[in-house]
């Protein structure tokens, strides 16, 4: 199953490397008891015309172009993995080849369940590439009503980026990583200066350019203090 997850990740990495504009969207609707729903979306719609042509090719700039069958199978394998993960339920997938938007969503009993989804994969990545990525992406303290998005920068990200060909580097020029967290309680404060609290105080939004994440200029790290109301 781990091998299938790697395949799923690599397939979409290959697809992303064939386009010049994409967004990864991480959404969480969070409940007071620590449960919630997470949706992760790869939005390549701004490059859909180019991708429609790319999908007819075998490879671009030395990168294999995944077929629709490859992508469908990879998503199915990812969904099958989620079904076997403790605390995960109500799994849904969305595949839109007209606009090239792909997403997977699921309910979780606690953020620990979300962290466990890719824990083994991250640990293997760290051993193989001698990196130090954290397996804890989220945490929630029920006592002080504090939600955290963890992110530990690893300098190897920049080194790997610098080793890419010039054409591959251009892919990240207009790419971004966006997080949207919604809560039942009001948000009192956020620690990341790039994060914005919604006018209704019930959501936090942040968009970070991919290059800023790669170079370590910006981070996804954020502590969101909720009001117990």
Provide the descriptors you would attach to this structure in a database record.
229 residues, alpha+beta, 31% strand, disordered N terminus, signal, Lipoprotein
Question: In words, what does this structure look like?
Answer:
It is built from eight helices and 13 strands. With 229 residues, it is α+β, with helices and mostly antiparallel strands. The protein has one domain (2-226). Strand 1 and strand 2 form a beta hairpin.
Give a brief description.
The chain has helices spanning about 1-15, 50-55, 70-85, 110-115, 120-130, 155-160, 165-170, 210-215, and strands spanning about 25-30, 35-45, 60, 65, 90-95, 100-110, 140, 145-150, 175-185, 185-190, 195, 205-210, 220-225.
Shape: globular
Count of DSSP H/I helices = 8
Number of β-strand runs = 13
Number of folding domains?
1
Helicity range: 25-40%
Strand order across the biggest sheet? 5-6-2-1-9-12-11
How much β-strand is present in the residues? Answer: 25-35%
Radius of gyration from the alpha-carbon trace, in angstroms = 18 Å
Largest sheet: 7 strands, mixed
Structural class per helix/strand content?
alpha+beta
Average pLDDT across residues? 84
- H/E element sequence: HEEHEEHEEHHEEHHEEEEHE
Cα distance, first to last residue? 42 Å
Task: Return residue spans where pLDDT drops below 50 for at least 5 consecutive residues.
Answer: 1-11
